Amino acid sequence: MKYEVPVGPIHPALKEPILLRFTLEGEKIVDVDVVASQNHRGVEWIGMNRNNPIQSIYLAERVCGICNFCHPSCLVMAVEEIAGIEVPERAEYIRVIQGELERIHSHLLWAGVAAHELGFDSLLHYVWMVREKVMDILEIVNGNRVTKSIIMYGGVRRDIKEEHIPKIREMIDYYRQGFKKIAKLFLEDKTIKMRTREIGVLNKEDAIKLSAVGPTVRASGVKKDVRQDMPYFAYPDFEVKAITPDLLTGETIGDTYDRIVVRLLEVKQSLDIIEKAIEEMPKGEILSEQKIIKILAQIKKSEGEAVARYEAPRGEDIHYVKLKSNFEQLYSWKVRAPTYINILSWRPMLLDMQIADIPIVAASIDPCMSCTNRVIVVKNNKEKILTAEELHELSVKKTRRMMR
Amino acid sequence: MNVDEIIQKFKEKGYEAWVKEKEAGVKIKAKKVSVWVSVDRKKIREAIELMINISEDFPHFSIISASDLGNDVELNYHFTVDYGKNLEEKIVSFKVIIPKKDLRIKSITPLIPSAIFSEREIKEMMGVEIEEIPDGRHMFLTKDFPDGVYPWRRDETSPKETNKLYEEWR
Predict the structure, then answer these.
(1) Residues 6+ apart with CB under 8 A from A384
(2) pTM exceeding the 0.95 threshold for the entire prediction
(3) Which of A142, A360, B50, B145 has the greatest count of CB atoms below 10 A from its CB?
(4) Are A311 and A214 in contact (CB under 8 A)?
(5) Same domain? A172 vs A210
């Protein structure tokens, strides 16, 4: 007897509402279908028809609240390449620091969500408390915790001042000291290991064939990282190496546990990058052109196309931009967010798993699918709606069962 | 494989190919290399097969981007090859121009399984008919989105009614 269980379409914690249709045999998942057509905001359309390129920076910032630096960066890089806008050296370093601060906060946010999915709420609260430190730094440096509006064509809008540097150093020390404790809680806890080892496995071949990106593909053993393969900003100076789970555990399985390992190690790597960046940051201007009207005029004159790539916390982000001279808006703009392509990996990960594994496996690619708001169970043609709490309850129950 | 070899392989088969480079980095410089290949729409599968054959690992599919050029529609199939190697990754983009009178192209999903979402998106947003697509449902637009309206187009098929709503808000 097969049952169909739709998960979605609305998830308060999901960046985009999405519907997952599961076909089940008892507890076992035998088929997964993803239906994305739930709420299209037409961001690209607005950039192509309404906004001028500077307004589009702030629009791109709102593609995703958590990755509010990577999308505008990607757009800015593409336009800078077409229009030939130079970026001062100091600005390139500040962009690197901003990008890595974002990675730390995003990975810690994810770690908390993952703990919550497993029913380990005390760990959720602990990790999110630890995350506040980087949010404070973001506020001190940018004036805002979330949408920071820091990037601009030809540089950045706010400098990292002398008085900020001791505070950033203090944050680095704080995380280095706390790292061991968090790593121990996540990687040595028996229950977390049971719920994540060999769960949601994505093997190397599938990861490559399905074009997975970011920590998802690295956890499957592919050393793919834009910062290493095709560096941008000032990243060539840092010689970033892609992180795979075998660096810590000595083996690569490609399961949910490995994806936790990769993200934890990346937080450590980001700390090293920030430390090096604040030490070696050159002095000088942060914007090549102060007058916004001049930049707009230069962009309006430009013609051409470019593809920009950026290693966002969730994976590779790609923007394609085409400009036409004397055309006010971006002529073409295509945003490829990392989750767009990572969703495809859900199928091989979830097949043969159990219903109670859906939240943690789905969350393991970091779409933050933390609470599934409603699930319809079609049983003998009678629909029963499971609420987020009930599905979460199933996951928690499984954890409790395994702890016994 | 270096860029010249890639260009050479495509040119041997009669495709027009060119390179764009951009420098990044402050103290250490690194080059961002993009290879562009112009492809006839009937040959899209052959061109992608050629790339699969010449690249060491399976090429990484990124996205298909689209532009309305007036009488034609331009599709760019973006891939990356040689990933996972320090500073060696290259972007390979296939540029295909399709006349609006006959908006059809063969699906590449049988060769590149991850292209399915992007092809479904191009189909609904640009109105390009993707032949032999294994799953032709809407991707991002709702099921009841009107037929014959394509949001990325700049001609009479663009969503004018939606624009009207926006004009009222302004």
Answers:
(1) A376, A377
(2) no
(3) A360
(4) yes
(5) yes
pLDDT tens per residue, range A155-191: 999 999 999 999 999 999 999 998 889 999 998 988 8
**Distance between CA atoms of residues A60 and A69, nearest Å:** 9
Q: What is the CATH number of the domain that holds A72?
A: 1.10.645.10
Which residues face A22 on adjacent strands? A5, A32
Return the C-alpha torsion angle A11, A14, A17, A22, nearest 10. Answer: -70
User: Residue B111's closest chain A neighbor by CA?
Assistant: A209
Phi and psi torsions of A23, nearest 5°:
-105, 130
**Chain B nearest CA to A67, separation (Å):** 19
From A224, which residue of chain B is nearest by alpha-carbon distance? B84
Return the closest-CA partner of residue A37 out of A77, A8, A4: A8
Say what the ipTM of the complex is. 0.93
CB contact under 8 A, A344 and B113: yes
Is A384 a residue whose pLDDT tops 70?
no
For B124, list phi and psi in degrees, rounded to 5. Answer: -85, -30
Minimum-distance CB partner of B26 among A89, A208, A242: A89
CATH for the stretch B3-169: 3.30.460.80
